[in-house]
Amino acid sequence: AVVRQPANTTSCYRTKVAILGAGVAGITAAQALSNASITDFLVVDRNNYIGGRVAHTSFGSDQNGSSYTVELGANWIQGLGSPGGPENPIWTLGKKYKLDNTFSDYDSLLTYDEAGANDYSEILDAFDTAYDIAEDEAGRILTENLQDTNTRVGFSLAGWKPRKDMHAQAVEWWSWDWETSYSPDDSSFEFGIAGSNLTFNQFSDENNLVWDQRGFNAFVIGEASEFLTQNDSRLLLETVVTSISYSQQGVVVDLEGGGCIEADHAVCTFSLGVLQNEVVDFQPPLPRWKAEAIELFQMGTYTKIFLQFNETFWDPDTQFFLYADPDTRGYYPVWQSLSAPGFLESSNIIFATVVGSESYRIEQQPDEQTKAECLAVLSAMFPDIDIPDPIAFLYPRWSQEEWAFGSYSNWPPGMTLEKHQNLRANVDRLWFAGEANSAEYFGFLHGAWFEGQEVGMRIASLLGNNITSRGNATSGYMTRYEVLHGTTDLWEYNAANGWPTSSFVVNDAS
Ligand SMILES: Cc1cc2nc3c(=O)[nH]c(=O)nc-3n(C[C@H](O)[C@H](O)[C@H](O)COP(=O)(O)OP(=O)(O)OC[C@H]3O[C@@H](n4cnc5c(N)ncnc54)[C@H](O)[C@@H]3O)c2cc1C
C-alpha cells in the first residue's frame, strides 16, 4: 500500500508513524502519539543525541580543570508565564527538570562605542516609545486586514529613524535583530510584532537564560524518557534520511546506507534550512503551493562566539555590554557575561553574538581571524585595559550544518497567514512540524513544542486512537491553500492605475 516497494524489504522497518527528527518537535509528536496509546512509531535523527537545535558543547575549564557546558543553540526560555495566565510549556518543563536558569536582565546593560564607554541609553527609551506606537499600528493591520509592510516602514512611520547614527543602529539591533536574526527591513511588520506579543505579552516579558551543566536538552531527553525505554529500538540515532516518497496510502523513507522505513504516516521535522537546501529528495516533488511557502519563509543565522579569559576584566555585576561600531551595523554588537551573578560565576566567560550577514562572514573565515576581530572590539570598548589573550575560544557555524542550515526562522514581508499555513499543511500522508511551522511562535522552542504535539494529535485522530474531541482544530488533515490570490485583478492593470501597456507585450520579433 505504499508508493514504492523498497528493493530489499528485509532491510526495511515497518511502522505506523515515522517521525523524522529527534528535536523538540519530533519528541513532542512522538509523545502525543504515545499519549494516545499509539506505540508503533520510529524516531529517526542523523545526530547522536536527542534535542536537535538544543545543542551544547564543552568549553574552557574551571578551577579544577573540568570544562564548562555552553549552549550553541537555544539558550533562553522566552516568555515564562504570569499568574492566572497561560504558561510557556518550555518553562513548565524547565521547572519539571529543575534546569539551572537565571533571569536575563536587559536593564543590566552598559553601552559602548569605538571610544570606550559611552552612555547612550536614552536612545533605548526613544526606541521603546516608537515601538509602542508601531505595535498599535501592526495590530490595526491585522484586525482590519490591511496590507502588511516591512518593519522598517512600520518603525519609520512610528517615528523611529536611526539613519546613520551608529548608536541608534546599535540600539535597533539590540531591540530587533538580536531576537529575530534579521533586520527590520527584512521582517514582516504585522507578523513580527504579533509574534513578539504572543510570546512576551501572552506569557510574560521575562527571558531566563539556561546555564544547566547537563545541557538545556536535559528537558527534551527527560520527556523522551517518559515514553522511550533505555536503548529503545524505536529510536534510530545516527541515521540519515536521504529521500521521502509519499502518497495518500503511506510513506517510504530511504536511509543513507540502503535501509528504509515504510510507514502509514511520516512527520518531517527537519528545519526550514534543510528543506530549502534540498538535502532530502521528495518523491513526487513537493507541490508548488508547498514549495513556495518553504522558499519564502526565512531561515536566519544566530552565532554565539564564546571567549574565556583568565580574569573578568569587564564589570563583573553587569550582564550585557552593547557595542556600536562606527562603520558596520551589527559588528560584534552584544557581549553577554556568563561570569555575572547567577550564571557561571567566576567562569571569566563572555560571549558575543552576531546574526545574518555578519554570521555568514565569520563562518567563512578562520577562528583566528574572528578572535582577532573580537579582541580589537574589546580593546575599543575597554581602552584602559590591556586585553589578555583568551584561554578558550569557540563558535559554531550554523548555516553550514547539514542538519540545520541556519538557526531559526523569521517571518518575511509578503507572507500571509494562508501562505504560512501551506508551510504547516500535510501533503498526502507526509506531515510537517517544527519551529518554523508555528504561526504564533516561529523561531522559539515553544513553537516547535506546540507544532510537534499538534501533528502527533492529528495523526492519532486519523489512526482512530483514543481521541475524544473529534472535529476540533487539532484532528484530521490540515487546511491548505492551493491558490493564493493577490489583490489586483487583471483588468485593474490599466491606464487609470498607471499601467496602460499590456504586461505581456512582445515587440521584439527576433
Ligand atoms: C543559535 C540558536 C539560538 C536559539 N535560541 C533560542 C532561544 O534562546 N530560545 C528559544 O526558544 N529558541 C531558540 N532557538 C530556536 C530553537 O532552538 C528551535 O526553535 C528548536 O530547537 C527547533 O526544534 P525543531 O524540533 O523544530 O527542529 P530541530 O531541533 O532542528 O530538529 C530537527 C532534527 O532533524 C534532524 N535532521 C535534519 N536533517 C536530517 C536528515 N536528513 N536525516 C535525519 N535527521 C535529520 C536534525 O538532526 C534535528 O535533530 C535557537 C536556535 C539556535 C540555532
TrEMBL record:
FAD binds at V241. It comes from the Eukaryota. One of its GO terms (molecular function) is oxidoreductase activity. The keyword Lipoprotein does not apply. It comes from Neoarthrinium moseri. This is Amine oxidase. Coiled coil: none annotated. PANTHER family: AMINE OXIDASE, FLAVIN MONOAMINE OXIDASE. Residues 24-455 form the Amine oxidase domain.
